[in-house]
Amino acid sequence: MDEELLELQKQFEFAQQAKSSIRLSDRNVVELVQKLHDLQIIDFDLLHTVSGKEYITPEQLRLEICSEVKRLGRVSLIDLTDSIGVDLYHVERQAQVVVSDDPELMLIQGEIISKSYWDTMAEEINERLQECSQIAVAELAAQLQVGSELISSMLESRLGTLIKGRLEGGQLYTPAYVARVNAMVRGAARGITVPMNLSALWSSLQQLLQGMDGATGVAVDNSFFQTLFNGLLKEVEILGSLRAGVHWTPAVFASAQKEFVDSFLSQNSFISYDSLQKLGIPQPMQYLQSRYPEGIPLVTMFIHPSMIEMLDAAIEDAVERNSWIDSLTVLPSLCDSQDAYKILSLCPSVQSALKSNRALIVGESYVLSDGFIKDVFTRLDKEMQTTIPISSASKIDDEKHPIKESKGGNDSGRLSELNDVSTECGNRPAMERGSKKKKGKSSGNPRSSASESDLNKQEPIPSKSKRNQRKGKDSSVSHVSESKRSKEDSVGAPSEEWIINKVLALVPEFEEQDVDDRETILKPLANQLRPMLVTSWNERRRVMLAENSDRMKRVLDNLQKKLDESYMNMQLYEKALDLFEDDQATFVVLHRHLLRTTGASIADMLLFNLDVYNKLKNGIPVEESQNSESVSLSSGERTSIAKSLHGSLSVKAVALVESVEGKQMDIFMTALATLVEESHVTQAVTQANEAKQQWHEEALVATVTRLEGRIDRHRDDQNTPVAIDRGKRDGDDEATNQVNGGNRIRYPVREDDYRGFDQNGFNHGYHDGEGWGGRKRHRKLDLPVFDDKGPDTWLDLTSQVSMENDPVLLLPKVVSLLYLKIHNKALQAPGRAMSIAVSRLKDKLDDSAFKTLMDYHSATVALLSILSASTNDPTHFIHQEDDCASDRIATKKELLESLMPTLKGLVLGSTITQPQVAS
Amino acid sequence: MEQWDTTTKSTLTKIPLLTTKAGPRDGAAWTQRLKEEYKALIAYTSMNKANDNDWFRISAANPEGTRWVGKCWYVHNLLKFEFDLQFDIPVTYPATAPELELPELDGKTHKMYRGGKICLTVHFKPLWAKNCPRFGIAHALCLGLAPWLAAEIPILVDSGMIKHKDDVAASSSDSS
Q1: Please, which residues have CB within 8 angstroms of residue B58's CB and are 6 or more apart in sequence?
Q2: pTM higher than the cut 0.80
Q3: CATH number assigned to the domain covering B6-163
């Protein structure tokens, strides 16, 4: 055993005997602390760290927070939690306590910030500001990660001390910068001479600034400019007025405006709103009214009362002189017609003239004196008398009217109705139309025309015209009927266009107006004149028609008479044709001849008279002399007359003319009959008038009696035994009418019969004397009906034969007379048919007589053949110098002349004693 | 060494390692070895005391130092269970580890050979062999007995195989 080992043994023993140190576990410690707490040995709050290994007292925590803040200046609570290792909840609570204890500190958004921190920040900011001359607060806030409100409040408290600058609209500026911008604003504001929206100004300034600062330039807020501007305004560095905060009107502009208006108004005594608007006065009317209370606002301009005086004088003058005036010529050229109308309504002289009906406002600006209108009217009336034939106008107008009605019927209808109310009333609708027309062309002033309708409403309309307007509206309901009536009334009256043209011709001054103006003045004037003209025209028409009716009666009477005679002849001759029915060729020849001679003359006579009648009816003057007996027309003339007749009458007449050209007598007869029936159809006129009708009937009765008298006279004139027969017939008129088949002239006697005829359409229109709206009346133009030759034919022929000296012409007459004598039928035959006609007489005459006739006939034929051989014109054979031919002619003529007495004797010898009377 | 818990490991590394490779029959070399064994035991004991983890008392029972006796104890549920500890230094020491005996617990648990020799984990032997001759008695206690006590005593106490001496006294007094 060595020493060392023993020593080690002892050491080991000692080590094992040594008292071991006592260690407590964490758990034990926590329990112990809790125990202490429970036992109130520890009587204060104990906080533990996040790790749970440490206990900390609140005081210690506060201390640690303070030291941390002092160290950093600005600490977020979350950072504190980490660094101190205490729960955030306790840190927050203790931080609040710390901050509330220390005024230097503030707790913002989970951060404790000390005042010193702000101070240093402010210093930093100031340095930067001095460098950049401007910093946006937002930028700073983003940089410091605090709210811009906070930073601006912080900055505000340090402005002027730590920060040498100015805070404006979220922007920090150095005083130098502010001064510079201020100078810019002042310069701009002073430079402006016209009103301007300030924001526009600011934007231009901003652009300028950005240009100067280059890319680094920060956008300057408009409010900054605005505050600078307001400051300048307050300091009276710039002059002017600010409206609604943005509309800047420089004083220099306002004064210039005022001076312009003043000078213009005083020089011209008017000013148009347009020019004011050009000057930038937005509501010129109000502006002027407030400045010049004595002035008068119009639609497009503002006038001084002196203008009215001037116009008044001019109008008074015009009215006195019975002339007219266009107020536009007196008023400044800018004045439009609406203004003119308004001014006119303000003129005392116009008002008085209108009240006393001495003047008329037309087309809004024209003032026509009563005298002038009267003058024009009389001249027009005269003109109309000479130029417009009453009847033709009626015809033309009749056709034109529907077209005119569609466009102008409106006015004429209203006018004719309103005309009686007052002259002014009549004027108004036309005026409205005028203004509408104005709108249409807009006269290069769209604004005024746009506001026109408004102004029309605003305008104080004279009460009279207001009432009239209402009336106009009312009347528009019953417009159609009115216009229809007016159409009838004005049938044949001069048209508006015609009046306008005439007025232009009469008053050449109107020509000077340009076309549109002319329309506006002349249309209403024409409208004004037209009813008057129509009235006078109707008056004259009435007079004329009254005259014409007499003449028409006469014409008709004549026609009747002549027709009677001719028709009798015609029928007479027609009878004779029956004798030749067996000989077809001769029959045709005879037919044609009869048509060419008698038929043609009847047709001519009828057509001519119808034409005359027609003309008379329409008021066309017809010379009396033309109404003479013999009328012969060429076929062309016939057709033209036939066509000139109107309606169905024309058709029938043309048919008649054609039948004359034809070969059939029957056709001609029927055509004639229908024409006669159809003839004298008067214009259909609808307006019934009982009194007039009464008058008609009386007139008809009178006509009938006249007709009767004429027929009687006619009979008497015959100087023949027929009178006996007539006497008998007079007794039983009624019976005849009923029998209706007699050889008599049939004529109605009583009114009842006339009515019947009316309905049947047999008509002879009796145009009433009034000239308008005559009721349709008819009277039959009777065809005399004979079933045999008339004694007058006999007499005619005998007298003709006895008078006849021309040997050639004698033969047909003698033959005719012989036929009459033998067959009791008159024959009218052409030369060609003569031989057949003569040969037919062979059986009826004794031989000597027949021989004489044959000789005469052959001699005549020989003579005529010689004549036709020698010359083309057999009627001038006497003057032929051809020796042998003339000799032969002379001998033949002598022969014929020698035979003439015998021939005459043949017929005349026994005629007086042998008149055959038809039974 | 991952089989042992961290405290054991840290403790083990703090125990000074031995250098001399000698068994009880090697004379002076064994004395040298014994000195090293004492130094290691002193270090380990003082270390345990510093950590308030003192858990055994041993002393050499013969002058050669080949037999050691003493006590070891374990605190479970605030009760200190104390057992006798004895072991011999084998002849092949240090190649062979000493067999630690807890004669009181003989027959009370499976983790024990006949005569109260504790069964060590499978990891002990290779570790010991690997660290021969650097491990000594202190290492064997630290690596072998301490884990065995920590693992087995609570089981034994809960199963009622061993009873606290106070309880034994109480029960005996109750019974008497």
Answers
A1: A16, B41, B68, B69, B70, B71, B85, B137, B141
A2: no
A3: 3.10.110.10
